[in-house]
Design a protein that fits this description.
With 137 residues, the protein is an all-alpha fold. It has five helices and no strands.
């Protein structure tokens, strides 16, 4: 797999660690702190790589347009996700098995979507072919 996929998979993994705190209440502080650290690192890495994704779409010096569209899509997705999350919570109530089932499905969907996104966008990274060309110089 590729490095950006690991970064994008870190946020669902951190959320899973947060959920796991219920299984070990005596370790709540340590597990919660680690989960928040992982989420913070994921957000930092995601923010620093976002410009590379934006630059892959640039045509004729339109980086401002790309960034604005990316931001508006992010805000829409965030609001949609919050609304969907509230609706799901209202449906499942206090059922732990349903909550874990929903989390597992949504986490898998998030990771798979991130993987497909990274695979679909041509990024100027150092792959094996470019490494061979670089080494030949």
């Amino acid at each position: 797999c590729c490095c950006p996929c690991y970064v994008l998979a870190a946020a669902p993994a951190a959320a899973g660690l947060e959920i796991a705190t219920i299984l070990s209440p005596q370790s709540f502080l340590v597990m919660g702190s680690c989960a928040n650290m992982i989420k913070g690192l994921s957000w930092m890495a995601g923010g620093s790589t976002r410009s590379v994704f934006n630059l892959s779409f640039v045509r004729d010096n339109n980086i401002a347009d790309i960034t604005a569209k990316n931001t508006s899509q992010y805000i829409f997705a965030s609001l949609f996700g919050t609304t969907a999350g509230v609706s799901i919570c209202a449906y499942i109530g206090q059922s732990a098995p349903l909550a874990l089932l929903c989390f597992s499905g949504l986490a898998w969907t998030s990771i798979y979507s991130a993987y497909r996104t990274v695979k679909a966008i041509p990024l100027p990274t150092l792959n094996s072919t470019r490494l061979q060309l670089l080494a030949a110089r």
